[in-house]
Write a structure and sequence with these properties.
The complex is a heterotrimer.
Chain A: H1 7-29, H2 34-38, H3 41-61, H4 69-93
Helix pairs in contact in A: 1-3, 3-4
Chain B: H1 2-7, H2 19-41, H3 45-57, H4 60-85, H5 89-119, H6 128-160, H7 169-195
Helix pairs in contact in B: 2-6, 2-7, 4-5, 4-7, 5-6, 6-7
Chain C: H1 4-19, H2 25-45, H3 59-67, H4 70-83, H5 88-99, H6 105-134, H7 140-156, H8 159-174, H9 184-197, H10 216-246
The chains are: A mainly alpha, B mainly alpha, C mainly alpha.
Chain lengths: 97, 197, 247
């Protein structure tokens, strides 16, 4: 019999996701750090936070936290690769513009 | 919480191993799309400005609301799966109902957003940014429609208590995972289109 | 007499059961021949694939594309025209597997019918390009129109292939016996193809960008999915036939 997934854990993850989303949205409103935006640091932070949220959903909602290692590894590889490529593109090009 | 984790010492693959071919296939397609978006954004100084202006002109509150709506519906699906495993079909159907209502809300807000842009005379061929905006969010919207149909199907099957290949725990878990994948992709789309301005 | 009859019936039943898939490998060889003809004709002899930048090219450029190497384009399209129909045995074989051992006759018919429909539009694609290559010295606008029409026949008509993939997908998932005929990842692969085929329905709107018929979602992903589907389905059907011949 499959164990029922831990509701408390999922509720905590849900709260974390909502908080990160609201935090990210307010981060773009604040023009406190204009030099951040100029060098693409803000963009890198946004992409990384999205990747963190994706990892949270994958681990706890899709129940990968008790999956075998190959599956978790593939998921982590996908998230990491996409994030690194996106951040890399921002990093290389934000020097020019 | 401790005893639940120690209870389940054996590692299990959610749904079944073959299912992840679909999920990773879809994720790969979307990550290629994200990278194509990023490359196009930095193609020249002109496209960079076009993309910044496009992101500015999008309706940020609706985007944020949509993100929260999808997160809520994902959470409702998690609860539904939990109720299903403890054998409480009525509460499972209620949770899936909440998820479906959230999904429909997402679609209606998206349509409001599209109509707003179309009324301003901005359509899919307006510029490089809106070309990608309409098509990528459109493909995502298609996923949402497929997801809602699958959720409705699952809820209906649980309601009439019909037993066949589409009412197994594996199928229901698979639909739940598919719905989480839709949520997960929207998080990245939201960051790329609305926040990077 | 009464005792002989059932014995004959039983042996007949056994005969049909055992020999129904006796020479079924030839369907797979035939598919391999089709893939060979497509690759030789469309990729090598007449380089119609991939269409780099053609969706946004001017009429003169398309016309020049047909004028240079006109004969090799005609020969390549001939090879393609000859080879296309050799995929039909595979569709028939998949249909027969879904109809008899998996016992889903309606899905089998829809699968076969929509497969044939997809083939029909592949022929029309070849005919459009063949017409464009037939008189390359004519007004460039007409050549461009025929070339575009060929691409719309090729990619835009995704719904037939899509319906076929839906049928195979449902058939694989409904097969819940202990030893299923098709592996379940074949069903998931078809589901992934369905998701990929949808963007191809948008190629009539765009001249540039990922959704144009030379773009990422209008060309690369659907055709990578399609050609890998040929390989995947050949492998899955091969194993299914081997399993059914033993049973």
């Amino acid at each position: 019999m499959i164990k029922p997934n831990s509701k408390r854990q999922c509720s905590m993850v849900f709260c974390a996701l909502v908080l990160i989303t609201l935090g990210v949205a307010s981060l773009t409103e604040v023009t406190l750090l204009p030099m951040f935006a100029k060098h693409g640091v803000l963009e890198c932070i946004l992409i990384t936070l999205a990747a963190v949220k994706i990892m949270l959903i994958a681990e706890y909602f899709m129940e990968l936290h008790d999956a075998p290692r190959w599956l978790r590894g593939t998921m982590l590889t996908w998230v990491a690769t996409t994030t690194v490529v996106l951040v890399g593109i921002v990093g290389i090009n934000s020097q020019i513009y | 919480m401790q005893h639940i984790d120690t209870m389940n010492t054996e590692r299990r693959v959610p749904v079944e191993p073959d299912f992840w071919l679909l999920i990773f296939g879809d994720l790969t397609v979307f990550s290629v799309m994200f990278i194509a978006f990023m490359l196009r954004r930095f193609e020249s100084a002109e496209t960079h400005t076009v993309f910044s202006m496009g992101a500015e002109s999008l309706n940020q509150p609706i985007g944020l609301t949509n993100t929260l709506i999808l997160l809520t519906s994902s959470y409702a699906v998690v609860l539904a799966l939990s109720h299903y495993r403890s054998g409480d079909l009525r509460r499972m159907i209620r949770s899936i109902g909440i998820a479906i209502v959230c999904g429909v809300g997402f679609i209606s807000l998206k349509i409001v957003e599209y109509m707003e842009k179309i009324n301003q005379g901005i359509t899919v061929t307006e510029d490089r940014f809106f070309e990608l905006y309409f098509t990528f969010t459109g493909i995502h919207l298609l996923h949402v429609v497929i997801g809602i149909s699958l959720l409705t199907f699952v809820a209906y099957r649980a309601f009439v208590k019909k037993q066949d290949a589409f009412s197994t725990p594996g199928f229901i878990e698979g639909v739940a995972c598919y719905w989480h994948m839709i949520d997960l992709l929207w998080l990245m789309l939201f960051s790329l289109f609305y926040l990077l301005g | 007499m009464e005792y002989v009859q059932p014995a004959v019936l039983v042996s007949q039943e056994e005969t049909t059961k055992t020999y129904r898939f006796e020479n079924a490998e030839y369907a797979i060889y035939s598919t391999a021949f089709m893939v060979f003809c497509t690759v030789l004709g469309l990729f090598i002899v007449a380089p119609m694939f991939p269409p780099l930048g053609q969706a946004s090219a001017s009429a003169e450029m398309i016309s020049a594309f047909y004028q240079e190497g006109n004969l090799s384009k005609k020969i390549g399209l001939c090879i393609m025209m000859f080879g296309t129909s050799f995929i039909i045995p595979l569709f028939a074989l998949i249909g027969e597997i879904i109809r008899r051992p998996m016992n889903m006759p309606i899905l089998a018919s829809v699968q076969y019918g929509s497969g044939l429909f997809g083939i029909l539009f592949t022929f029309m694609m070849t005919v459009s390009w063949g017409t464009a290559a037939f008189r390359p010295e004519r007004t460039p606008d007409v050549t461009q129109a025929l070339h575009d029409m060929g691409w719309l026949f090729a990619t835009w008509v995704a719904s037939a292939t899509l319906l076929q993939a839906v049928c195979i997908c449902i058939a694989v998932f409904k097969d819940t016996r202990d030893v299923p005929v098709f592996p379940r990842w074949f069903g998931y692969y078809c589901a992934w193809m369905i998701v990929l085929a949808f963007p191809a329905c948008l190629i009539n709107i765009f001249h540039t960008g990922p959704f144009a018929y030379d773009g990422l979602l209008g060309f690369w992903l659907p055709y990578v999915a399609l050609f890998s589907w040929f390989g995947v389905s050949m492998v899955c059907v091969w194993h299914a036939v081997k399993k059914l011949k033993v049973a």
